[in-house]
Amino acid sequence: MFKNINKHYLTLHLIVFLWGWTPILGKVIQVGAMPLVWFRILITAIISGIYLVVTKDKIQLSKKQWLQYSFVGLLICIHWLCFYQGIKSSNVSATLMGFSTCVVFTSIFEPLFYKKPFVQYEIAIGIITIGIITFMYRLEPSNSVGIAFGTAAAFLGSIFSTLNGKFILNKNNSTSAAVISFVEMLAMLIGLSIYLGFSGYFNQTFFVLTGSDFFYILLLAGVCTVFPFIISINLMKHISPYTANLTLNLEGFYGIILAAFLFKENKILTPTFYICFGCIVLLIYINALIKKRIHKQNT
């Protein structure tokens, strides 16, 4: 059993590494956050639909399930918009710093949604994390926009990941992760298209992409979205939303390292920034050690 747990954690880390490239691609892609997210959703929905056809996975959902998955899809859409707006308005590192607060919100939402007691050490880690973020927000006002959008993305991310975990763990729910993913993407596409249509975003220039932008969005949708998204939903059968979201902070670690290497962001960020983010990464490993110790005590 412990070997299976290690396998699930390794799979999670592979997914997190792939997601670590999403902010990098978001920075490289030249179009704004709105068209970036819309094209990402469109391509992801198409690939997900093709996957369902190939695997012959049928969509058989109740009205309640359609509404539930659609609601989560809209949360994911706003989550993506906040995330990429932070990157476009500020920089990759500041947005990822704010995004690391996912653990704070999940330590609250998971007990509430799963109707289980709050875990003291999870709350403690969450309080320390939010303290670090608040310190950085006040210390470096030039990065405040990115931190704010990243934090908003984390808030929404903790909600939808916890809800997806609850859906997949429901014994009365036999819906596959691929179907859940497709329905959520479809809701995202319809919801954002309606908003963009009424707000006047849809025009000739909106649909114009350079060859490089199209390639990077295709990479973002296929490699960094469809595969990780479906697998991450399945992983919720074996890993708690709190641990998943805490490990997702490594997305920030990978992203910041890549941003320093590719965009030289290390030249515009202070040593204090990296010290604070290092403390957050340390919290991830403290959580892992505690989880491992609890597991050994229970076996």
The arrangement of helices and strands along the chain is: HHHHHHHHHHHH
- Assembly of the depicted chains: single chain
| Poorly predicted regions | none
Distance between the termini: 10 Å
Estimate what percentage of residues fall within beta strands: under 5%
- What structural class do helix, strand and pairing data support? mainly alpha
The largest β sheet comes out as: none
| Total beta-strand segments | 0
Total DSSP helices: 12
Cα gyration radius (Å): 19 Å
Q: What's the rounded overall pLDDT mean?
A: 86
Helix content range: over 70%
Shape: globular
Report on the architecture of this protein.
This protein is an all-alpha fold and 299 residues long. Helix content is 80%, strand content 0%. Helix 6 (102-114) packs antiparallel against helix 7 (120-139) and helix 7 packs antiparallel against helix 12. The longest helix has 27 residues, at 63-89. It starts with a helix and ends with a helix. The model has no long low-confidence stretch (mean pLDDT 86).
